[in-house]
Amino acid sequence: MATTNIIPVKQGKKGTYLDLYPESSYDPTAFERPTYAVDMAIFRLFEGQLEILLIKRGQDPFKGRWAFPGGFVDIRNRECSEQAAVRELKEETGVADLKGTPTQFHTFSDANRDPRWYNISTVYYYLMREEEWTRVPAPKEGDDAAEVRWWPVSKITKGKMGFDHYTILTLLHMHLMANAWELSLPFKLVPKRSVFTLPELHEAYEALTSAKVDAGNFYKAVKKRYMLRRCGGKKAAGGVGRPADYYTSDGVRDAFA
Amino acid sequence: MATTNIIPVKQGKKGTYLDLYPESSYDPTAFERPTYAVDMAIFRLFEGQLEILLIKRGQDPFKGRWAFPGGFVDIRNRECSEQAAVRELKEETGVADLKGTPTQFHTFSDANRDPRWYNISTVYYYLMREEEWTRVPAPKEGDDAAEVRWWPVSKITKGKMGFDHYTILTLLHMHLMANAWELSLPFKLVPKRSVFTLPELHEAYEALTSAKVDAGNFYKAVKKRYMLRRCGGKKAAGGVGRPADYYTSDGVRDAFA
DNA sequence: GTAATAGTGTCTGTTAGACAGTATAGG
DNA sequence: CCTATACTGTCTAACAGACACTATTAC
């Protein structure tokens, strides 16, 4: 048996991969292979602020610092990176059954991004709706021992995170700010998928962009752009002031999954 | 010596990576590692058409089909993926000394994208200016034996390309069409970096978006948005009709590198 | 002069933003 | 009534697109 541990695709049929293409002029074992990891950046909207789900590292390197949920892709079982991101999220935070698919942001491959060995990471992000929060531990104020918690993005500093995750978070946050409108991101933060209120969308937009936007103008713009239609009912009272109407978006209902 | 061939970062100092973190609860060698490759999509504007630089595969799999230049990242020498994309481009096509940096598009990690083993690829793209074409063989009509040549993007069909490269090209082409204006892509296709004419930009824009755009309106828009300034001189005569003025963009001169 | 390409002016409908005004809830 | 929040109307300046018009070259 070769010393390689690369898995041949058709192992039972033709033998190891070297047998499959004996005339291949190059041999993948001649190249070192990196470890391949994924990171998952889960965002939510909480009390008007954009928050991110982080885990506290229990061991070196960067013991005690915070990091994205993530881990190695299970190559042996032919897992793709997106599946790995979902699986690692569940294993490390208990969050399962995402309603939509995470979006690939970028792949980081600097040789020194992990102090131990050459590791590359593909970073995914996902904007989580309120009804998906259930499995995530609530943040406890001042409880540093919590291993998993939401952090307001605005409160995270460079020294708080391990590896290059602060840099990644900054790049990702800039991406969200710049593309909130084009990528329809407010819809992905708002509860109940296709039924929502205009103030909810407005709050999500402001949280994503860190900018103040005139509510009335925003309502008009979003109604026109997404062909929103009032769908009956009002947000249950209890708050102060006039309750908001519910809206739906027929045409692009599934585009916000 | 361990059976792993992962390179410890501080080899001479403390030994192998396992010695560095003996209490680590996880061991990267417990995970299979993928081969890690890059693909480079080089575009140019030629006779009003968007073209891409492809190589013809000389061996299986997909012998005789066309593919992006690319290859394995040299992990052993701590090369990052962007460096690898530039190096492989040079090795496979002779194109060297890119004036700007390639842009990362996406990382593909489906287990079956390479029929031989689990391979992931990070795809980069680069829009090439006319003065960088010199090392690239000119296309020969009907010469199927050429190993490296430019192909008009519009003439590429699914069966012509190997691996999943046609899918990748389609996704990438859609990305370029959708973001030509926002990403200032026409500037990256146009000769001489910061000195250009408005018709050149217009032609580049139409080639990128596959759409007809009123030239006059485009001139006005681009001059305003990029604060273009007429910088003297006119395009050398020889063509028919009025020669175009040269423009420059002070404020964002280096943004188009 | 004509032909061809480069660039400007003008008109019109749309949009973005500021901000005033109206609507509907609780108290 | 009041306050607070949810909208809607109105005005204006900017913008986009259609298209007519002028400008500069070759011949």
What would you say this structure looks like, in words?
2 copies of one chain form a homodimer. Chain A is α+β, with helices and mostly antiparallel strands. Helices cover about 25% and strands about 20% of the residues of chain A. The first copy, chain A, contains 7 helices and 10 strands. In chain A, strands 1, 2, 3, 4, 5, 6 and 7 form a 7-stranded mixed β-sheet that branches. A 3-stranded antiparallel β-sheet of chain A has the order 8-10-9. In chain A, a hairpin with a 2-residue loop joins strand 1 and strand 2. The termini of chain A are far apart. In chain A, about 35% of the residues are buried. Residues about 1-25 of chain A have low confidence and may be disordered. Chains A and B meet through strand 5 and strand 6 of A and strand 5 and strand 6 of B. Chain B binds a DNA duplex (27 and 27 nucleotides) through helix 7.
